[in-house]
Structure formats: structure tokens, C-alpha cells
Amino acid sequence: MDALLLLDNVAYARLDDDYVVAMEKLKTYNSDLAKWVEENSPQHWAMSKFAKKRWNKMTTNLAESFNAWLKEERHYTIFNLVMTHMDKFAHLACDHMGSTENWKAVIGPKTEEKLLENIIKSGSLPVYPYVGGLFKVFNMKVYVDVNLRECTCTCKAWQMAGIPCRLYPSLKPPCSNDHLEGLDTVE
Asked: What is the mean pLDDT of residues 52-61?
């Protein structure tokens, strides 16, 4: 087994139970490496230990993003730079709108495919309702909290992907479109 793959499993484990399993495998592979991981503040970088959202960001430097967008044009005069930016943005928006005309459903084909895949994976998982839109779903390993009001899940898959995780279909009938709120849709 590869040490880098084992470290990835530790870093990207979304549930505490998965983190423990990944750490056990790492200890079996190399106990010194596992000790080093434990001594280097996993609460700051391991997904299951890190309390705050740490995805959905391209960069924190807006100027860097803008420079990458207009790499060739950044030496233009202000007027030409602004006009080129508007033109590139208009083309991007038109291309996106043109591609949505081919969508067969109200959501994009890749999103629809992922939702259907999650529906198939969910099967018939045991669900226990709590108050305020909160449900406990047993995913055959641990109980996971799914909050329908906040569109979150303690497995963090919903927050990371932006679409309901595989636990969601066990809560709602597939004909409901509540889970589409906030996704790119075609009216």
C-alpha cells in the first residue's frame, strides 16, 4: 500500500469512524508516520476533525482570479480591458445558456445523473425522524444526521458537492423537487 494514499484517506475521511479506520491502516503501515500525523494538529487539516467549511473556494485572492481570467489582456488600456472583459463574460454566459437548451430535465445532465446514482445507492436505509427537519439515517456503519432545512449532512457530502448525498433519497419521494433548490436549473 502507498503511504500517500493512506495519508489521503486520513485527510479526506469525512466521518470520525472513517478517520479512525484510516489511522489504524496508517499505524499498521508505519507507526512513526501515524504518530507524526497525530502530533501535527489533524484538527487543522483532517476533514473529519476540521469544524469549518474548507471547500468551494478557488482562491482567496480576487486579483489573482481576475488576472488569470484576463491573462493576455491585462496590459491593455483600461477601456480595452473593460470592453474585453465584458465581451468574454457575455460569450461565457451565452455559451452556458446555449448548453442549457439541450437539457432534458430542469437540472443539468451531470447533476441529474449523480442524483439518480444517489437514489439507487440509497436503497432502503433506516430513517428516524427528529424535530425541525432533522433525520437520523443509518448508512449501515453509523448514524448520520441529515438536516433538510439547512441542506446539510454530517457525512459532509451534500455540503461539498452541492447536491443531496445518497442518504437524502431515503427521506423524500423521488418526485419531490425540494432538493433542487440552489442548483442550476432551467425554468
From this structure: 62
Whether residue 91 is found in the same domain as residue 115: no
How many domains is the chain built from? 3
CB atoms within 10 A of CB 166: 22
- Global pTM value: 0.51
Strands lying side by side in the sheet with 127-129: 127-129, 134-138, 143-147, 152-153
Sorting pLDDT into bands at 50, 70 and 90, what band is 153? confident
| Sequence-separated (6 or more) residues with CB below 8 Å from residue 117 | 166
Within a domain: 186: no
Residue 82 belongs to domain spanning: 62-100
